[in-house]
Write a structure and sequence with these properties.
Two copies of one chain form a homodimer. Chain A is mainly α and 445 residues long. Helices cover 65% and strands 5% of the residues of chain A. The mean pLDDT of chain A is 87.
């Protein structure tokens, strides 16, 4: 094994760990364990970060305690936080015990930040230089201390007490005369995050400023870590997943669909399904209220699903568009009137389209059969008018609900397609039968 | 004005264009126009890329033809492509005419790639060095030619005919002895894109390899451009928006909600709404088929919305989870059996939960009132059993439909919550009334 190890190390020597790691991470777990026992520590640590969680866990079990300790100690702090965060508490504690006192302190400090906060994603592998240094001194310092990944696109400038003065792109250093002081390259213009900021805020800043790394500072503006753009692509994907799952009427799974336990997925789906079911029970109440009308004119019952689902569909469209626009910052809650005016117009037009189709469908059918009875014209008129009302109402409800939720500090994505459909189903029934009572009085009712 | 211009240029001198631009882009359009008339060309071009499309258009109208031409010629090619792409064809042609012959050729070549392709997002501002150069020569070359943004984190190594040999991080150059040849820094390991690749493919590669820039090569492996990670954050947001809008049962808007014209938003929403309406018409047909049963037992009609919407909700959950898991690559179409097995279990459990609640609700109500008549137990049993069947059926339909769509090369996100709900509504009615025919024969029916 020792000979294999030496050969492996020779074969790996010309590669940069961060280039090789994504490829190695696809190896079967046994081969990974072998690599991890003999491979260079930096490569091992970088590769570990690319391995999926399930494999990471099995891998650590295949290593000796010493090997596991060495690996955990050499992991970049942000990757280690991400890994420990996914473990059950007891296992996480065992892992923390394997760390050296210094690394344990770092890990505990990062884990103390709330989930989905910037602090949890920080890495400490940044390069900080002093403003009075020359460009040459700064580049020499980087050449000596820049062995960590993720750091070298942006350099941070701090004062003697560690307070952030500015960030400066490596490009700026490279393009400047070597004897110029770093101070003269600064523009005093930087964006910074707090460790307690939500990671969505970080995502916004990255999108706005096109940076590859942003500094994180504490209350006294001391530089305590950085966030890098490669983590932001993962954040963007996770945040979109959460929103999409909520829009589908389920709690965010936070785990892959195929590996989440049956108990957990049922709980996450049942909670919303039961809430919606209780809401939908009101349709039975509403229908019972119009039971006499249904008994007199059974033909009315035939169009109940058609009418109420059209309102639900229009509402689901409006809710989805408004939720996404809110997430992208296209408008704010205070712009509700512009949204409502828009949905008033759209809702009327969409209602007229569906109402006309519904009217024509019943009229045409009645021309060739008598399935809708002698008062088909009244029925067609009722369905047509009810559709205009229900689609308009659905569009308004669907567009306003996310704004109301956001106004009260709730997540707008909670107003999912099924949630809006349920709301609109109940009110849609009332609209439909009220129209019927007006239009069909004296004929069918 | 000339004095103002000189003062402005002096004030702006210490800033790096890419740091200042995001802030300047928020200025009112008149001040922007003033800045654009006198500001340094690089700053003007960078700022223009950060300005929203509507403001970009107004800005160009405020500039003289010469000023507009200078601006367009100095825009980075990828930002120019993005801008021209959003213009109506006639306006885009006018803009193309303002370009110098060389820039026009570049712009036309980029615009010839399909929308949402890698070619449309390419930038040409990369630095390519030769393998036989020393690190010192490479760094000197960068210092001389690296004045463009977005380029300096990764350097590309090409042979005499421009074929890509490898990419190398600037970090690697900075950490190496100055007299070492570039050739010895190479690991022969790089990912590359084709200009015709879909931008989603680029997003996957960036996510997988944690790069800040990836090279684009033609069929003979010649380097023709690069893609940078900052554009990927925008791609991730746009792709998520498309998926979310489709899931909500509307065509992707491709424009902000508040600025898209009324005609366009109505067309995009009406198309799907009408399709769903035609589908939902089948509920009226199904209901008509059971008209005699409804006439005999009006109480059955009361629970129609409750039963069918529960199936739709369960189906919308399943569809959303499967669509997102497919988009994240968690599983593939060939894993359909694992998904179906999972939904069988989840569907039965969720159905039992809702079925029990439905049964109890009717039973309890009947204990205090006679709204459901003497045969309430049969009605409660019918609703309970139908709910189990409908929720299970909804879960199966919702989970399989995206897989079927994907299998036939269609976008799985087409199986939106409203689409699945419509499918399940029709079949849910058949399930409900069939259960009723079995359980209530001899009593109500």
């Amino acid at each position: 094994a020792r000979k294999d190890g030496a050969a492996l190390r020779r074969a790996l020597a010309p590669w940069l760990a961060e280039d090789l790691a994504p490829h190695l991470a696809d190896l079967p777990v046994e081969q990974l364990a072998m690599l991890f026992r003999v491979g260079p520590p930096e490569l091992v640590a970088t590769t570990f970060a690319y391995v999926p969680l399930e494999v990471q866990k099995r891998l650590l079990k295949l290593l000796s305690q010493d090997q596991a300790a060495e690996l955990l100690n050499s992991l970049p702090p942000d990757d280690r936080t991400a890994f420990l965060n996914e473990l059950p508490l007891d296992l996480a504690m065992q892992m923390l015990a394997l760390l050296s006192p210094a690394e344990r302190q770092v890990a505990q400090a990062l884990l103390a930040y709330p989930e989905h906060s910037v602090g949890r994603m920080m890495t400490l592998d940044y390069v900080a230089v002093r403003p009075e240094w020359s460009v040459r001194e700064a580049l020499d310092y980087i050449r000596e201390h820049g062995y960590d990944r993720e750091t070298l696109n942006v350099i941070f400038v701090v004062d003697t007490s560690g307070r952030l003065i500015d960030d400066v792109r490596v490009r700026r250093l490279l393009l400047s005369p070597l004897d110029r002081p770093v101070r003269e390259l600064l523009d005093g213009n930087y964006a910074r995050l707090r460790p307690t900021d939500d990671r969505e805020h970080a995502l916004e800043l990255f999108r706005q400023f096109d940076r590859v790394a942003l500094p994180v500072t504490d209350e006294s503006e001391r530089l305590i870590g950085i966030i890098t753009v490669d983590d932001m692509l993962d954040v963007a994907a996770e945040e979109a997943t959460e929103d999409i799952q909520k829009l589908g009427g389920t709690e965010a799974l936070d785990e892959p669909y195929l590996t989440i336990t049956l108990g957990r997925i049922v709980r996450k789906r049942a909670s919303w399904l039961v809430v919606l079911f209780f809401g939908e029970m009101l349709t039975a109440t509403a229908m019972a209220y119009f039971e006499d009308e249904i008994a007199k004119a059974v033909v009315l019952a035939l169009f109940v699903p058609l009418v109420i689902s059209s309102g639900g569909n229009a509402g689901s469209q409006a809710a989805t568009l408004v939720i996404r626009a809110l997430a992208l910052g296209e408008f704010h809650v205070r712009d509700w009137w512009r949204v409502m005016r828009r949905e008033l117009a759209v809702g009327v037009l969409l209602g007229l389209v569906l109402g006309s189709i519904g009217f024509l469908r019943i009229a045409l059918w009645s021309a060739v059969s008598d399935v809708y009875g002698p008062h088909w014209l009244g029925v067609a008129g009722t369905v047509g008018c009810a559709l205009v009302g229900v689609v308009l109402w659905g569009s308004l409800t669907g567009s306003m609900l996310p704004l109301v939720l956001k106004r009260f500090g709730l997540d707008p994505a909670t107003s999912s397609a099924p949630f809006v459909a349920t709301l609109v189903d109940v009110t849609g029934l009332v609209i439909y039968f009220s129209v019927a009572l007006v239009l069909l009085r004296g004929t069918l009712l």
